[in-house]
Amino acid sequence: MKKAKRRKNSGKRIVMTMISLIIIWILGFYLYITYKNIEIYDSNYTAQKTKSTIEEQTVEKAEENSKIVADVIEETVESVVGISKLKNAGNSIFSNNTESQLGLGTGIIVTEDGYILSNEHVAGEKYSKCYITLENGNHYEGTVVWSDSNIDIAIVKIEANNLKYVTLADSNNIKIGETVYAIGNPIGFEFRRTVTSGIISAKNRTIKIEEEETVSYMTDLIQTDATINPGNSGGPLIYPNGQVIGINTVKISSAEGIGFAIPINIVKPIIESYKNMGEFQEAKIGMYAYDAEVIPYLETGTNNRFQEGIYVTEVTKNGPAQTAGIKEGDIITQIDSTQLKTMNDLRAYIYTKKPNDEVVLKVIRGKITKEIIIKLGK
Description:
The protein is of the alpha+beta class. The protein is 27% helix and 31% strand. It contains seven helices and 18 strands. The longest helix is centred in the first third of the chain and has 35 residues, at 2-36. Mean pLDDT is 81; it is low at 45-52 and 89-101.
């Protein structure tokens, strides 16, 4: 009996041992197959190689983009001109005169047949003369064919053709933080066509201008930290693709990096009219209004607070607006089917019209909202 029992126990041990060996073999085979398919690399080499490739691609891409922007700006610079109120009497228009005496500034060519956009305070009022220096050094006498002191814009005509001109962007689509470049003639032509860079710091800015005991407001301006010096006035503010979004006009002298440009969309209809027809028949509405954010600065005696629309502060005597019944203190929210948020919205729309055209204004007067038809004048 004891021998039979020992044989039985021995047989169980053999079976258990065999089962254990089979299990170990199966596990070993599984691990072998699994790890055989795992690719093992030299981690130091691989990491270094990958990092190097990324860096090379990034640097190459940055250099490529930088070169593209540089090429675009170089082309745009060819359309930037110098403007002076005094005729060039030598190699430099500066001699011993100061910038303010000469009225030095900048302009940009906007058509191939010689229409140039600038500030009114640079080029002068309508019908006045100024002197233009092109990028190639050629000089021309220019005539101001249109100007508006309220927005500080003037258009000059020179007798020239086949000029390289700029492309105009849509300034309604600008965004804060976008990269921009300012081009101009700071100090004088010795530093002509200086390019500075920055971003759009803000939009729809209103600034107070005090000159010769008079106070005015410039509204709907683009604020930028691209350096703008006095001679930059009238020069373009552009995107990296070379498209113009604004005309540089003023800077805050008591602070660094706060300059302003006039949105290009305001004068687009005027430029198109000169480009296509060689003339611009300006329609007049006969009133002046301010944006909502200007109201706190004015002694209007009103407590009106409104989100949209413009506040009428002045109505020209016997002008189209007065004749139609517009009064000071009215809030105009719409012209035809166009909503108004700023005075520049109204200007841009009126610039698309001709004298004797009729427009419909939606007017809020106290608690009453009405529509008023105005026949535009010259």
